[in-house]
């Protein structure tokens, strides 16, 4: 696409979404001067990395900004997820393109590295699993006691992670290497998961913990992290993950349950 056409498309995109260059660049973490220089014809190259950062900030693809939408982001993630569940980050973006039939340029217009794709794909899968994993079955008196509910939620989380262990390991490595925006989305989803945990696991318990709502959310974060840690620390001995989790939970909740 030539510079003239790209400028016209960027101007249209700004108008369609009621965006200001300054605010958009601030969210993308880039200097607005570079975009103004391109839009004002002082340069004919806006830079691929800047376009990717702008697309990431707006939750779209470079192709969408430029008016090219061969495949949407959600479709690409859903096609990549089974590969990442099976292989973790042992593949490259080119491998994913080859195995899914997606155009490499489409993948590279959103994800600079396989780490970025791993994070987005895992967060999408986690977001959809949140409520199903934490919606404990009602099995009478046992389910109404908080310690048993915590342990049941932990077992379900561990089972979910162990079923896609290579993906989980890849995500926990990739989240340290990806963009600040993706890490922010991880923190947001982690908080959302803790709130669901409070509503589905802690709140229905008969022997409620003597904690106010904010402290219950903090406890939920700790307990959720404990299930993750028990899984990752027992990769070579998966049968030990659940006993390890239960032991840690008993230590964490000691003295916090109203008998």
From TrEMBL:
Gene3D superfamilies: lambda repressor-like DNA-binding domains. InterPro entries: Cro/C1-type_HTH, Lambda_DNA-bd_dom_sf. Pfam families: HTH_26. Residues 9-69 form the HTH cro/C1-type domain. SUPFAM superfamilies: lambda repressor-like DNA-binding domains. This is Helix-turn-helix domain-containing protein. The lineage of its organism: Bacteria, Pseudomonadati, Pseudomonadota, Alphaproteobacteria, Hyphomicrobiales.
């Amino acid at each position: 696409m030539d510079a003239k056409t790209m400028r016209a498309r960027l101007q249209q995109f700004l108008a369609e979404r009621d965006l200001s260059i300054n605010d958009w660049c601030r969210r993308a973490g880039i200097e607005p001067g570079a975009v103004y220089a391109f839009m004002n014809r002082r340069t004919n190259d806006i830079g691929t990395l800047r376009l990717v950062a702008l697309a990431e900030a707006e939750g779209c693809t470079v192709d969408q900004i430029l008016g090219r939408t061969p495949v949407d982001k959600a479709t690409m993630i859903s096609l990549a997820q089974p590969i990442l569940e099976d292989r973790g980050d042992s593949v490259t973006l080119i491998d994913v393109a080859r195995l899914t039939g997606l155009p490499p340029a489409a993948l590279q217009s959103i994800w600079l590295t396989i780490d970025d794709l791993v994070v987005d794909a895992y967060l999408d899968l986690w977001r959809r699993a949140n409520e199903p994993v934490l919606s404990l079955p009602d099995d009478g008196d046992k389910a109404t006691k908080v310690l048993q509910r915590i342990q049941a939620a932990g077992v379900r989380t561990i089972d979910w992670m162990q079923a896609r262990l290579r993906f989980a390991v890849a995500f926990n490595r990739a989240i340290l290497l990806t963009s600040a925006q993706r890490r922010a989305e991880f923190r947001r989803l982690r908080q959302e998961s803790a709130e669901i945990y409070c509503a589905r696991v802690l709140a229905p318990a008969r022997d409620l913990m003597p904690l106010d709502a904010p402290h219950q959310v903090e406890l939920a974060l700790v307990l959720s992290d404990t299930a993750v840690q028990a899984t990752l620390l027992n990769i070579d001995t998966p049968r030990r993950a659940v006993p390890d989790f239960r032991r840690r939970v008993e230590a964490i909740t000691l003295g916090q349950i109203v008998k």
